[in-house]
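check this:
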Amino acid sequence: MERLTLPPGGAQAVDEYLEYRRIVGEDDGGKLFTPEEYEEYKKKVLPMRLQNRLFVSWRSPTGMDCKLVGPETLCFCTHRYKQHKTDFETVPQQRPIDLPCRVTGCQCKAYHYVPLNGTQPIRCRCKHFADQHSPALGFTCNAWAPSVDVLDSPVSVMDHPFLRAMQPPSTSSPQPLAVGPSTQISSLRKPEEDDMAYFERQYQERIKMEKAAKKGKALPPPSTQPS
């Protein structure tokens, strides 16, 4: 492994640069401020930042704040939260607040957090990841143009419940998850269930069946009639 040797005062210069990046972010447009410009920037922005600091979280479709967004949290455009516009002289009144990306050439007009499945990013309903889509409004898939049949295909074990939770409720009867040829899972949604509750119930039913199969017991198939 190559070992870097810094000249005298090099470590302090690195620390000062990291502090500069934390404060300025992408506001310098890729060209470092002069010492005078840097001091002027801090005098203008830091008081405003303290007064109008934004605390951002990702909210699930059920209304629960599930993820606090920090400076390093990635956006749909693959850039980080700290690379988006977050400083305002007065906080906008509309909600949600658009936080466009400040990276030169990025077409992202508003910060969008992409939920994770553990440490893995979730797939779009076209079966591709966020970084395979255009960050411009419309989020066109750059990999291929999926057909309507693909987009409306039932969720499989390779997909994540967020895919359906983020979609409007279907008017047709939901299809069961494809978890194996011998597994039977209730395919009808209960009247009071939203998308997330529906998929959570399917998941719990599958876990019960798998546990029963390991113990050599047979469970009766779940009722297909809403209770």
Observations:
- The first helix runs from residue 10 to 24.
- Confidence is low (pLDDT under 50) at residues 170-186, 222-227.
